[in-house]
Here is the input.
Amino acid sequence: MSEKKRKRFIAGAVCPECQAMDTLMLFLRDNVEHVECVECGFSKSQADDDVSQATRKDENVIGVFKPE
Here is the structure.
């Protein structure tokens, strides 16, 4: 069964590549979070394990945003 891809824009976010504001969309594909700029095509992915490894042990994370 194909996974439903819900794309959501990240309000106020600036693309690290083209510096355009409000052009980044966030979506989940194969349990991996993806961010993509609709203006220039910049994309970045991060799996749940990468999120856990990036968190320092002395910090408390309230939660990681996951689109449904």
Observations:
- The mean pLDDT is 78.
